[in-house]
Design goal:
The chain is mainly beta. The chain is built from one helix and eleven strands; from the N terminus they run βββββββαββββ. The strands form three sheets. Strands 3, 6, 8, 10 and 11 form a five-stranded mixed beta sheet that branches. A hairpin with a 5-residue loop joins β4 and β5 (66-71). The termini are far apart.
């Protein structure tokens, strides 16, 4: 058996079977999905929270492609559900950043998360809060 790592860091294996032999091979199916919750906070130069309505938070895969988006409720909460295992980036939609002249917080302006591959388990990633400044 030969094992290596694929580009996304998932272990892969090659199996060699002798001719005219029966070989039993078992492999797991991807059964994990994850939910992500958080809150979008937009603050002015005096750290006062701004009213947020209908902003969009995006979820990007490892290649930078948007794979999901969520509309923020009036309290700033957002929610992604049924997300496959992998590494993701959460950020406010670029159109809102540009239109409202927002500056992402150095630490919480973008959040990188991992939804692990675990068998028959559900992953909850809560409190993934984003912070942006407006001036």
């Amino acid at each position: 058996m030969h094992a290596n790592l694929s580009p996304v860091g998932i272990a892969t294996q090659s199996i060699y079977v002798e001719p005219m032999k029966t070989t039993r091979v078992e492999f797991p199916l991807k059964s994990t999905v994850g939910n992500i919750t958080g809150k979008l906070n937009i603050q002015d130069e005096f750290n006062r929270k701004r009213v947020i309505t209908d902003f969009i938070v995006s979820l990007f895969d490892n290649d930078g492609r948007e794979v999901a988006y969520a509309t923020v409720d009036s309290a700033g909460n957002y929610y992604f559900s049924g997300i496959s295992p992998g590494r993701y980036k959460i950020a406010l939609d670029k159109n809102f950043v540009d239109d409202y002249n927002l500056i992402p917080d150095a630490v919480k302006g973008e959040i990188f998360i991992d939804i692990p591959y675990v068998y028959k388990d559900f992953v909850e990633l809560n409190n993934q809060d984003l912070i942006y400044k407006c001036f």
